[in-house]
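Reminder to self: tokens first, then the designed residues, so the page reads top to bottom the way the pipeline ran.
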């Protein structure tokens, strides 16, 4: 899986230019892996946060649907009837797992900021 655009062409994996970066949020994953950005935001319907995270060696989280608002980020007219928009979520990508809770707290609306979520499991992850 690769990521490309008409202006800059194919996005290269920062660790091996022969490898892809993993789909639509692949550029975000690549720039984070290359230490060009500390954090990033991606959208995910079928793996667009998760796959670039794996391909680039960073951490990504696909949150529960509607936890992070998609307004002004994912267009309402994505497909007829908005079916794909209903499946899409917005979530964080970070270089370090311990940054995910902070990003999620910043992205989540007021209703979710007081939620008690145990992120201690991230302490078990090593990069």
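Designed residues (127 positions):
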């Amino acid at each position: 899986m690769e990521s490309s655009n008409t202006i800059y062409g194919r996005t290269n994996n920062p660790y091996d230019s022969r490898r892809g970066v993993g789909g639509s949020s692949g550029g975000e994953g690549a720039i984070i892996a290359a230490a060009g950005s500390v954090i990033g935001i991606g959208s995910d319907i079928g793996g667009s946060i998760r796959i670039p995270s794996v391909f680039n060696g960073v951490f990504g989280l696909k949150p529960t649907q509607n936890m992070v608002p998609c307004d002004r980020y994912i267009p309402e007219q994505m497909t007829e009837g908005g079916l794909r928009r209903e499946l899409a979520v917005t979530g964080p990508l970070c270089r370090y797992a311990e940054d995910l809770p902070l990003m999620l707290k910043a992205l989540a609306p007021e209703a979710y900021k007081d939620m008690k979520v145990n992120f201690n499991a991230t302490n078990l992850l090593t990069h």
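The chain has a mean pLDDT of 81.
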